[in-house]
Amino acid sequence: MATLFHPGAIAQAISDAKLDATELDGIAFTRGPGMKACLSVCANAAKGIAAVLKKPLVGVHHMVVKEHPTYPFITLLISGGHTLLLLALSSSHFSTLATTVDISIGNAYDRVSHLLGIKWGSLGPGAALEKLCADNPVPMHSFHKMKSSLPNPGELIFSYSGMLSAFQRYLENISHDDELTEQRKAEIAWTFQHHAIEQLESKLSLGLKWCDRHGHDIKHVVVSGGVANNAAMIAWASMERFLKNDHDSYDIDLRSEWSIEDLNS
């Protein structure tokens, strides 16, 4: 985990843009949600630069920065920290349709990858599990029979802890004499992935039906993950506030837990 920002990267970005630091109109950064230690890296850098240059500062909710089609639309956010189905009615009006009551899908992917002993290197455990599946196609009849039913059927609730427990029990019950070959790992990984994605599909379908019943004409679904977040999107999301002269103070706090519904106006 990084604890210091890299001044050279900031200097390089300004140089590549053929600008002088004094020509910047303002400084934007990710205020939350997320891990506080990580958020503080960019926040401290942004606050320091803004204060020294006497430029306005805007802290952005990272979920607002995703590119979006015409309102209203639904966003399915899936990452290591989120499993969230969100109804976006405007740039300042959001409604959470479903969220996880325990762990996120990304967290479950990481844990199953660890349980299977998948070597992940620079990919990350969840990505390594996906790669194992992609490199080893498995027919449906090879999926392992595990007691992992769809949680909370008919309800707009995500839950992955029960599925994770089912896979953990299954692996514990495998005979120690049985060799866990790469092919067998792939079969188990495919089985997990099938159940995990099946839940996303089911809850998304429920969310679309809910919107239809409540008069929201949804034409688009945005599927987004944590890696979709980047500096260009943060800058774009801050523009509306900069244009309205709506700025934050240099001592603004971070929001490691921050419901997007708090932004509703």
UniProtKB/TrEMBL annotation:
Keyword Iron-sulfur assigned: no
GO biological processes: mitochondrial tRNA threonylcarbamoyladenosine modification
GO cellular component: mitochondrion
Domain Gcp-like intervals: 9-233
Protein name: N(6)-L-threonylcarbamoyladenine synthase
Enzyme class: transferase
Gene Ontology molecular function: any one: tRNA N(6)-L-threonylcarbamoyladenine synthase activity
Annotated keywords: Acyltransferase, Metal-binding, Transferase, tRNA processing
Organism field: Clathrus columnatus
Reactions catalysed according to its record: L-threonylcarbamoyladenylate + adenosine(37) in tRNA = N(6)-L-threonylcarbamoyladenosine(37) in tRNA + AMP + H(+)
EC number(s) on file: 2.3.1.234
Pfam family of the protein (one): TsaD
